Amino acid sequence: MSTNEADTEMMSQGVMSTGDDTRIFPDVAACIDCGGCVVACNRTWDMPRDEQRISISTMLEGEEGATEAADVGGTRRINDPSGAVANGQQPGETSVPMQCYHCDNAPCVTVCPVDALVKKDDGFVDVRDDVCIGCQYCLSACPFGAPQFPGSNDGAAEIFGTGGTMDKCTMCQDRQDVGKGPACAEECATDAILVGSTEQIADELEKRDSGTFFNDEAMKVVFGEDEAKEAFGV
């Protein structure tokens, strides 16, 4: 599978390429907590009403962020929450699309005792449903809350005290196989979900004058130490 450049031109601005070694990452400064990504995912994969593979985590809801001097006098809110945090300032209300980022250094893969989670050669992190025992170690290990256990209260899972089979974002690999971007990113009204190579994501964030928001350790988990250092300087 390779990047389909012709189709990429018809995708949202946030989807820069698809295919092998594609990464997905949020531009926190662009997220407006509209829920469009959640709706797109649920509709695309026909998810039950009480389940979802992507959610929006909103912090400091209703609070004003740090301000800076405006060109025309007075003050204005700093639009980049990452910049505010880096300067030790209050970022104010901040929304982060949370999903499986298919991490290069995926802790869920490392802790799974039965190898139900695998990091494939094409970069996607997959769940082997027939191997998962519902121990939920992956949930404890993931910094982003991606693993979900929708069957934890059903039948045998409840009787034996397991979490059932784990479910998570697939980064719409089936859509990428035919040259389409992940549904959440394609339908994001503000292009707050970026899809592409590590370099493309770093360049797009720089072009937008947006920060990464995640701390250095989280960036190394998502992109791997070498790529995080090369692309983001962490």
Could you please describe the fold and organization of this structure?
It is a single chain. With 234 residues, this protein is of the alpha+beta class. The chain folds into two domains: 1-58 and 170-234, Alpha-Beta Plaits; 107-168, 2-Layer Sandwich (Alpha-Beta Plaits). It is built from eleven helices and eight strands. The protein has helices at 5-8, 36-45, 81-86, 107-111, 137-141, 155-160, 173-176, 183-186, 198-208, 216-223, 225-232, and strands at residues 23-26, 55-59, 67-69, 75-77, 94-98, 117-119, 125-127, 193-196. A two-stranded antiparallel ribbon has the order 1-8. A two-stranded antiparallel ribbon has the order 2-5. A two-stranded antiparallel ribbon has the order 3-4. Helix 9 (198-208) runs parallel beside helix 11 (225-232) and helix 10 crosses helix 11 (225-232). The radius of gyration is 18 Å and the shape is globular.
CATH topology of the largest domain: Alpha-Beta Plaits
The CA-CA distance between the termini, in Å, is 30 Å
Mean pLDDT: 87
Largest sheet: 2 strands, antiparallel
C-alpha Rg (nearest Å): 18 Å
Overall, the morphology is globular
Helix-strand makeup class: alpha+beta
Low-confidence stretches: 1-10
CATH architecture of the largest domain: 2-Layer Sandwich
Helix share of residues? Answer: 25-40%
